[in-house]
Amino acid sequence: MSISLRLADEAEKAQLRSMLLDYLVELSQYGDVNLEYPFFDSYWSDKDRWPYVIERDGSAAGFALVNTWSQSRKGTEFAVAEFYILPQYRFTEVGKKAFAALLNHHPGLWELSVMMRNEAAKRFWAQAIIAAGVTEIERIELERELIFRFTTEV
């Protein structure tokens, strides 16, 4: 099983938007979600946003949207804005390997947030962060979100 992560090009916007909509609909069971996702197009124009396609054996298996916005308001270098693995690839290590590759592309201070009611995502991220070799993780609990803050090797 080969897992790769690469920047999405303009021609892949429609495919990513379709996956994003599926992801947002899935997330809506845990709280309010804006299905319009107003910042989507800016991932192809802003220098501090990166749209990634996650591939398994050459086929799209998901996506990751990375930016620099700090949910905790403590400041960060990178943030996982959205991360989605297609259902058929879940529980196969695709997500963990793609996340580790993402951290290798952008070493530094990271944040990611999870909706507090999304127990499966909270378990996944706790495991994925450790599997990526991160040893010190700050957890910040807000009313509706759990934020993971950590630093990777530079």
Can you give a write-up of this model?
By secondary structure, this protein is an alpha+beta fold. The protein is 26% helix and 31% strand. It contains three helices and seven strands, in the order βαβββαβαββ. Helix 2 crosses helix 3. The two termini are 27 Å apart.
Topology:
Blueprint: E1 3-7, H1 13-27, E2 50-56, E3 59-67, E4 78-85, H2 94-105, E5 109-115, H3 119-131, E6 137-141, E7 145-151
Parallel strand pairs: 4-5
Antiparallel strand pairs: 1-2, 2-3, 3-4, 5-7, 6-7
List keywords for this structure.
154 residues, alpha+beta, seven-stranded mixed β-sheet, 3 helices, 7 strands
Summarize the model shown:
By secondary structure, this protein is α+β, with helices and mostly antiparallel strands. The chain has three helices and seven strands. Helix content is 26%, strand content 31%.
**Strand proportion:** 25-35%
3D shape: globular
Proportion of residues in helical segments: 25-40%
**Ends: how far apart?**
27 Å
Topology pattern, helix = H, strand = E:
EHEEEHEHEE
Number of distinct helices: 3
Radius of gyration: 14 Å
Query: What order do the strands of the largest sheet run in, or round the barrel if closed?
Result: 1-2-3-4-5-7-6
Let me know the largest β-sheet. Answer: 7 strands, mixed
